[in-house]
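User: Sequence recovery, please. Input:
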């Protein structure tokens, strides 16, 4: 599996995260092409330049919004903050031509932002007015982060502890203490580890905190290092103001600690189970499945099972309580073993088809065609699905035999 470790040495913001992705090799042309799928009403341009932060070379992201000052914080530019509601941003993302994975990541990040803002202001997510985080540059940072993670094929995000600075920050709500209330709420929701910092400026922004709270497990994974990206912060500090993204591959046969959440349900409308599954996957569940069972008095019921990272347990447990009729659930630690995987494209007489490769000890031992791609070609060419699937399977087997 493909991992990325977020080294929050000097904190994290949306623009630092996106700059690090670009520094690691995300093509700017690809990013801009994908962002155009958003159909934002605002005009923008993105520039990336290499600078030094102390003795370290890093990439600095600049988003040009006309009169927008590129040296201002991307999360706190008042004069360019559009007061969007969560539903406005949701509609913008859902109406776009972005991939399903990019939409899923982006909406999950903004969902967490909306929940944090609602808790801070004592309101609902539908009533929350996004100010700084509703600005176009923060939308670009968040969608860009999702585009980059998809481009690199990242399966899992890990992160270091984040620095705990003090002081105050100016926002459209006036002066607020650091960490900003929404930032602190997000870090609390994620049970993020924090370390004291002497800084009197904002090191962790709401957008950066939302990315971590939504996607990251706060631990260092065992992996084989593959690539590195370094993003520069806008401020100059007494230390290198950088964020590092460290990409790697999981070790074959590595044991991964996870949790299994289960509950038995015998009084819920079956039509609702599909929605629950979608919500759980969007919130970070790695696997969700249902098992028909019989409960007391021989009543037919459904057992809901969820496999998840330990860090996602509180969020998923709360979601199950909110979205189902259950009054409780059981949670037990489990260990999962995973083979490495890779996606390769094979040529067939019907066209190119992605094939998933299973890798053990550095060797490809199995190849499986992507079903959706085969089904799409079958519909387009009016050919039996099994013929296309078999052709892709044979091409994948040849790849295994010729390694």
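Assistant: Recovered sequence (403 residues):
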């Amino acid at each position: 599996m493909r991992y990325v470790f977020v080294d929050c040495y000097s904190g994290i913001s949306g623009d630092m995260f996106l700059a690090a992705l670009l520094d690691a090799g995300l093509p700017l042309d690809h990013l801009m092409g994908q962002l155009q799928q958003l159909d934002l009403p605002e005009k923008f341009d993105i520039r990336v330049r290499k600078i030094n932060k102390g003795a370290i070379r890093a990439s600095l992201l600049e988003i040009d919004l006309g009169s927008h000052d590129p040296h201002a914080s991307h999360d706190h530019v008042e004069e360019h903050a559009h007061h969007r509601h969560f539903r406005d941003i949701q509609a913008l993302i859902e109406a776009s031509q972005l991939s399903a994975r990019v939409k899923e990541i982006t909406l999950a990040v903004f969902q967490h932002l909306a929940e944090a803002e609602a808790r801070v202001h004592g309101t609902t997510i539908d009533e929350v007015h996004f100010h700084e985080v509703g600005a176009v540059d923060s939308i670009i940072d968040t969608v860009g982060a999702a585009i980059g993670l998809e481009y690199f094929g990242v399966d899992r995000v890990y992160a270091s502890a984040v620095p705990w600075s003090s002081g105050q920050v100016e926002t459209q709500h006036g002066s607020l203490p650091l960490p900003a209330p929404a930032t602190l709420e997000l870090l609390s929701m994620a049970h993020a580890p924090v370390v004291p910092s002497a800084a009197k400026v904002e090191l962790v922004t709401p957008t950066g905190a939302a990315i971590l709270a939504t996607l990251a497990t706060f631990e260092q994974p065992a992996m084989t290092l593959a690539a590195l990206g370094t993003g520069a912060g806008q401020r100059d500090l007494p230390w290198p103001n950088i964020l590092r993204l460290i990409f790697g591959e999981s070790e074959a046969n590595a044991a991964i600690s996870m949790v299994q959440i289960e509950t038995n349900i015998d009084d819920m409308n079956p039509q609702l189970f599909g929605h629950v599954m979608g919500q759980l996957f969007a919130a970070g569940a790695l696997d969700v499945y249902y098992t028909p069972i019989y409960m007391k008095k021989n009543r037919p019921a459904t057992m809901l099972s969820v496999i998840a990272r330990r860090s996602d347990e509180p969020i998923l447990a709360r979601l199950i309580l909110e979205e189902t009729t259950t009054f409780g659930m059981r949670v037990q630690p489990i260990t999962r073993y995973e083979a490495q995987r890779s996606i390769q494209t094979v040529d067939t007489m019907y066209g190119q088809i992605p094939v998933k490769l299973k890798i053990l000890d550095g060797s490809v031992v199995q190849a499986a065609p992507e079903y959706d791609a085969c089904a799409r070609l079958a519909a387009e060419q009016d050919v039996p699905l099994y013929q296309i699937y078999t052709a892709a399977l044979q091409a994948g087997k040849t790849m295994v035999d010729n390694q």
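The radius of gyration is 23 Å.
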